[in-house]
């Protein structure tokens, strides 16, 4: 027998489980299945595993959120109840133990966000890859183009290379549409649709926001810390989101943790309908802020207004606030009236931006939408339409706020699929 025919024969030997996708969900699913004694083949089209993990948490990787199940579900606005069983199968605390028992030290930061002590996302990806390799998971660089079925059940996959791999179970963990350079190009949605599954509308979530106000460009690169950002629906003045934290001005509008979280509340984007309101001094009431401004002015009585705000505001924001206040830049501070101070206080406590849209979905951290959860068993992650087909991670129509919740969804659904396949 020639080497070529021997190699081809090995490639077509059946496995117990085929996992499509080597990200967080796929590697957790592969490890769980292998620990349960299954022969696992993992197929990943990228040249390395966990590519998207490397860019999460600004390269630090927010592994999970240290909270109970009910709190967790409250942070999943899209089909959160569907995840009760999966999150109880692998809780955030159990995820933390999983990594610590694998030699990765972790720490808990503000908002119960859990990070590796090293602050290196690569360490998280390395743990997952090492675990699956040590469990005997076979890894092959393949792009799957079709899931094979027989008699209404999954039987394997066909790849772009023309190769077929057979198995009695297939776990689809290909990610979403966000960050396509990491391999998230929507392959899983097409594979699921070809088998009759419904894929809900795909939209960006946890994504920078474009604003109507062009002055944001003047403040480009400015990072604000300890500000409160509120998202308001102009139709009824309802506050959809309000949180203290960090945000960033960009050439197109705003980004940063607060903005990404706010974006996940914009389920029905209509340009002009929503406002972002920034409280630059949330620790001060308007009365306290006015007293602070008066004190600053008294120390700089002969200065121009535009040169008097250095102690109060970031340098890049001063020209913006001056223009919006309609107080002349060269107005002497000892000539500024109570009415003028009132306008200044109002701006500092309620700097308003109008939402015009999102950045492209390719820039989103998470894709909202995916395989309809009504067609998936929440207890096993198995398809209700195709026996032996399982789903894990972002390909499912679930998404959460920032803070480690989305990676925990990947881990919990991956683990649940892996132990039930």
Descriptive notes:
- With 421 residues, the chain is of the alpha+beta class.
- 29% of the residues lie in helices and 23% in strands.
- The chain is built from twelve helices and 18 strands.
- The strands form four sheets. Strands 1, 2, 6, 7, 8, 9 and 18 form a seven-stranded mixed β-sheet that branches. A six-stranded antiparallel β-barrel has the order 11-14-13-12-15-16.
- The model is unreliable at 1-11 (pLDDT under 50).
Number of strands: 18
Q: In angstroms, what is the radius of gyration?
A: 26 Å
Largest sheet: 7 strands, mixed
Continuous helix count: 12
User: Mean pLDDT, rounded to whole units?
Assistant: 92
The oligomerization state is single chain
User: Could you say which structural class the secondary elements and strand pairing correspond to?
Assistant: alpha+beta
Strand content: 15-25%
Q: In whole angstroms, how far apart are the ends? A: 35 Å
Helix and strand string, N-terminal first? HEHEEHHHEEHEEEEHEEEEEHEHHHEEEH
| Approximate helicity band | 25-40%
Shape label? elongated
Q: Which stretches are low in confidence, meaning pLDDT under 50 for 5 or more residues running?
A: 1-11
Features:
single chain; 421 residues; alpha+beta; seven-stranded mixed beta sheet; six-stranded antiparallel barrel; 18 strands; elongated; disordered N terminus
């Amino acid at each position: 027998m020639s080497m070529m025919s021997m190699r081809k024969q090995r490639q077509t030997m059946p496995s117990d489980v085929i996992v499509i996708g080597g990200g967080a969900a796929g590697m957790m699913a592969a490890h769980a299945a292998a620990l349960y004694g299954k022969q696992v083949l993992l197929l990943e089209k990228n040249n390395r595993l966990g590519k998207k993990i490397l860019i999460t948490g600004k390269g630090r990787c927010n592994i999970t959120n240290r909270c109970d199940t009910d709190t967790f579900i409250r942070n999943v606005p899209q089909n959160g109840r569907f995840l009760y069983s999966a999150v109880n199968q692998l809780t955030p605390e159990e995820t933390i133990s999983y990594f610590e028992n694998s030699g990765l030290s972790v720490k808990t930061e503000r908002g119960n966000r859990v990070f590796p002590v090293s602050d290196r996302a690569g360490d998280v990806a390395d743990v997952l890859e090492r675990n699956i390799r040590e469990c005997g998971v076979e890894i092959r660089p393949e792009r799957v183009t079709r899931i094979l079925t027989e008699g209404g059940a999954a039987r394997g996959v066909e790849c772009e290379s023309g190769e077929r791999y057979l198995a009695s179970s297939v776990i689809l963990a290909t990610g979403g549409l966000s960050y396509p350079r990491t391999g998230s190009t929507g392959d899983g949605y097409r594979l699921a649709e070809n088998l009759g599954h419904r894929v809900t509308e795909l939209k960006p979530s946890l994504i920078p926001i474009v604003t109507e106000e062009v002055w944001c460009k003047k403040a480009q690169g400015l990072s604000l810390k300890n500000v409160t950002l509120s998202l308001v629906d102009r139709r009824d003045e309802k506050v959809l989101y309000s949180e203290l934290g960090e945000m960033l001005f960009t050439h197109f509008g705003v980004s940063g943790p607060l903005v990404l979280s706010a974006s996940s509340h914009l389920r029905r984007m209509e340009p002009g309908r929503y406002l972002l309101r920034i409280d630059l001094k949330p620790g001060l009431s308007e009365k306290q802020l006015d007293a602070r401004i008066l004190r600053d002015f008294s120390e700089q009585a002969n200065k121009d207004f535009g040169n008097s705000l250095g102690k109060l505001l970031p340098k890049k924001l001063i020209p913006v606030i001056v223009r919006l206040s309609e107080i002349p830049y060269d107005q002497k501070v000892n000539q500024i009236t109570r009415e003028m101070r009132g306008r200044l206080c109002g701006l500092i406590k309620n700097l308003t931006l109008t939402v015009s849209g999102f950045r492209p979905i390719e820039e989103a951290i998470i894709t909202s939408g995916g395989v309809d959860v009504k067609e998936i068993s929440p207890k096993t992650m198995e398809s209700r339409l195709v026996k032996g087909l399982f789903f894990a991670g972002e390909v499912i129509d679930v998404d959460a706020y920032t803070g480690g919740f989305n990676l925990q969804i990947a881990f919990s659904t991956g683990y649940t699929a892996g132990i039930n396949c």
